[in-house]
Amino acid sequence: MTTKYQTYYVPAQSAWPIIGAIGLFLIAFGAGNYVQQLTTEKTSGGYILITGLAVIIFMIFGWFKTVIDESMAGLYSPQMDRSFRQGMSWFIFSEIMFFGAFFGALFYARMISVPWLGGASNNAMTHEVLWPAFEAMWPLVKTPDGTATEAMPWTGLPLINTIILLTSSITLHFAHTNLEKANRKPLIIWLALTVILGIAFLCLQVEEYSHAYQEMGLT
Q1: Regarding the domain delimited by 12-76, which CATH topology (the fold level of the hierarchy) does it fall under?
Q2: DSSP-assigned states of every residue in 94-124
Q3: For residue 161, which phi and psi values (nearest 5 degrees)?
Q4: Could you report the per-residue pLDDT of 62-106, keeping only the tens digit for each?
Q5: 195 with 187: CB under 8 angstroms?
Q6: Dihedral (CA of 198, 200, 203, 209) sign
Q7: Model confidence pLDDT, tens digit, residues 182-217
Q8: Who contacts 178 (Cβ-Cβ below 8 Å, separation ≥6)?
Q9: Rounded to an integer, what distance in angstroms lies between the CA atom of residue 204 and that of residue 195?
Q10: Could you tell me the pTM of the whole model?
Q11: What is the greatest pairwise CA distance in the chain?
């Protein structure tokens, strides 16, 4: 009895991951410098940020083109399809853990660190030794050096960004539905709307962080 083995396409070495890593580094470095330079006349951070975004866009188009060309050439097998799905599943899992770490840190700061620093329970010595002038409150509106800050309300830009984020999920769902039905024109329209909403979200995030840093004293 002859055993039939399924072919599995192994892509050649690619420079796209390295290009993407360079783009992400430029974005992080440029964004940090841009925020720091908001109160100065320097503008190098903004140019670095734009360069990083351009590199990422170039990487996305190039990498997607490579994958599409390989798929259209019939190089992919059902096993490759399962590999793509597993990769996306691990990516979603990593995002869940990423935001889980943020929410965990928020919970720890709000429910444990702040009461301890305020001397709650049997932590009177912690309060006296580490920060005698600390007042346990939430949100924290005073820095260790005594500078007063202002908590950002949930209305305004945070609310608008949340609405945009939820709306982009809906448009992406419609794009996926039309992809399954092979409706090319509606697919392009809904996908373009999703991209536009994503760009708007990122721009408003930059505006929100700039406002928090410049006008509200949040760092």
Answers
A1: Helix Hairpins (1.10.287)
A2: HHHHHHHHHHHHHHHIIIIIHHHHTT-TT-H
A3: -65, -40
A4: 999 999 898 888 888 888 888 889 999 999 999 999 999 999 999
A5: no
A6: negative
A7: 899 999 999 999 999 998 998 898 888 877 777 776
A8: 184, 186, 187, 190
A9: 14
A10: 0.70
A11: 82
